[in-house]
Specification:
Layout (H helix, E strand, L loop, with lengths): L1 H5 L2 H26 L7 H22 L9 H24 L6 H11 L3 H21 L2 H11 L4 H7 L4 H21 L8
């Protein structure tokens, strides 16, 4: 850690190289753990991990003076790379995703879970009604936030992408759920008591 504070010389370069190797390992673990959820595989996953590690290294070297020693340096550095991975995964979601429910995937659920045909039909109908409610009852902003949250975009990434804060996102989600519930009750898909 002391070698990073200098900002120059061979000791600084060696410390950065060692830290980068550690950050790459952490980022690889994180993207391999979370990547499949975002449907990212292969070289793209490796590239994402290396980008996250490089960006985390830059942030760490710029913020090294803020390290107070209250935790191990590697624990402090771990936070930076995990946040970078979250940010990169969230950006990937925004670039490639335009749906939040895949009816074909939902249709396969009954076969795997042993649901009877009537329950299967009711579940498909509920999914279709929920999709319709999202499209018709929510504002564009609520739809954008709701879709991202349902797809697992981290709130920090979403707040950054939408230039807002977590509290505003919580409020938007609360209002969206309230509208969706009201529409599903009105259409007879949910009971008012439940």
């Amino acid at each position: 850690m002391d070698a990073l504070e200098g900002g120059r010389g061979s000791q600084y370069e060696q410390a950065c190289t060692r830290l980068h190797a550690l950050l790459v390992r952490i980022a690889m673990d994180e993207v391999f753990r979370r990547g499949p959820r975002y449907r990212i595989t292969g070289p793209e996953l490796n590239d994402l991990a290396h980008q996250a590690a490089a960006d985390a290294l830059m942030r760490i070297t710029h913020k090294i003076q803020e390290f107070r020693g209250e935790a191990r340096f590697t624990t402090w550095a771990f936070r930076f790379v995990v946040l970078e991975v979250s940010s990169k995964l969230g950006r990937h979601f925004w670039r490639v995703s335009n749906t939040w429910f895949d009816l074909d995937e939902c249709a396969q659920l009954p076969d795997r879970s042993g649901i009877d045909p009537v329950s299967h039909w009711q579940a498909r109908e509920l999914v279709a009604a929920a999709r319709n409610a999202v499209e018709t009852a929510l504002s564009a902003r609520q739809r954008q936030v709701f879709t991202a949250v349902v797809n697992g975009v981290p709130l920090e990434t979403l707040a950054s992408e939408l230039e807002t804060n977590r509290n505003a996102l919580y409020k938007t989600m609360f209002d969206a759920r309230k509208k969706l519930r009201a529409q599903l009750i009105a259409s007879g898909h949910l009971s008012a008591a439940g």
